[in-house]
Amino acid sequence: MGSNKKIKLFLFSVLTLVAIIAVAVYSSRFFVPSSLSAGSLVTEEVDHGPVLLSIHATGVVDSENEVLILSPGPGVIQSILAEPGTRVKKDDVILQLNTDGVRDDIDGIKDQIEVRRNNLERTRLNAQSTRLDLEYNEEVKKLKIMSLKSQLADQQQLLEVGGISPAKIDQTNQEITLAEKDLETLVEKNSIRLKQLKAEEQGLLLQIRMQEKELEEKQTLLQKMSIRAPSAGIILSISGKAGEKVNTDHLLVRMSDLTSFKITGSIEEQHAVQLKTGNRVVVNLDDEHLEGTVGNITPMVENKKIQFNIHLHESSHPKLIANQQVEIQVIVGFKEDALRIKKIPEFEAGQKQKMFVVEGNKAIKKDFTLGIIGDDYCEVLSGLSEGDAVIVEGLNAFRQSDEIELEK
Fold it and tell me: Which residues contact 266 (CB under 8 A, 6 or more apart)?
């Protein structure tokens, strides 16, 4: 008996609820107007254009190139003229190495060159004197041979008249032969001696040229002992202190080169899966927008953020300043020329939407599908055409309707 009462009570409750709903639906017809003024509606027109989806990131402007300055030679740091963090111009002196040792080397080389030049002059004078002696000796030998030959001619005439013996003529012939051999040997020795003198002169010239080259290198090194900035930049670090000894090629200065820049970006960890090398980025720089691409991505998470590098297309833009903080848009979705509509909060990507579209003097509810939900626009995949006016505000009371009359 008790169970029958419960069943009856349940059925009564259901019927009562159905009756209330029916009355509410029926009554609502009297409160919803049959038509609506078109001027009270807010519409968005479907058109063609780019659809861009980005994620927000921040960044810091860094120098793209780091310059390392090495010690040009062994020495002692005499003074440091620019501390880390200092902005320097091209050719500004950053630090000065002690030049006493190099100057002593230069003075020593100059003295050695002067000594060798004196030796060269003396060698040339000796060569000139020797050449004169050798030429004189040759002439003496030649004159002796001519004298013997003249004597032989006289003896041959005497031999014809019986005034001399044949043995005397043979003796003179032998003397001529010996004198000619002696002259030939002397000429050959003189040639060798002259070549020796020429070689000595060339050797001294070579030594002088080598020392002049060494002197030039030392003078260049002297200039390099003033460590200058190769370009405008910021000093990052200096390795060493005043009074400290350094060796050749010791790293002295690290500095940034301000001729071109890159950006070190930072993005929230939850967006890491969307961040890819090669992603297009837009850097908001005051009233300008610079484009670039994502470079290396640091795989480690620090403070719930991921670090990455950005390579700018205009890395030498005049508004870029080292250590400048910038806002970044990382483009993760982009359509160059898409059928699109202005973004509204109710839109969901890849799902069918139901909204009213103005057709003449009516608003017709239509189904349409969206693609990319961008920052400002949404891609329309199907259901709408270019020029359609989609009603986005003013129809809250007509949500259950499929068609509405519009009054102009």
Answer: 57, 58, 59, 305, 306, 307, 308
Q: Write the CATH number for 328.
A: 2.40.30.170
Contacts 24+ apart (CB under 8 A), 95-101: 95/227, 95/238, 95/240, 95/252, 95/253, 96/225, 96/226, 96/227, 97/71, 97/72, 97/73, 97/225, 97/226, 97/227, 97/246, 98/225, 99/75, 99/222, 99/225, 101/74, 101/75
- What local confidence, expressed as pLDDT, does residue 281 receive? 93
Range of the domain at 353: 34-51+336-407
Q: Is 95 exposed, middle or buried (0-12, 13-18, 19+ CB in 10 A)?
A: buried
Tell me the pTM: 0.49
Report pLDDT digits (tens) over 148-190.
888 878 778 777 777 777 888 888 888 888 888 888 888 888 8
Same domain for 298 and 348, yes or no, is no
152/196 same-domain check: yes
Answer whether residue 16 is part of any domain: no
Residue 70 in any domain: the answer is no
What are the tens digits of pLDDT across the range 182-223?
A: 888 888 888 888 888 888 889 989 999 999 999 999 999 899
Tell me the per-residue pLDDT of 328-355, one tens digit each, with 9 for 90 and over.
999 988 888 899 998 887 777 666 788 8
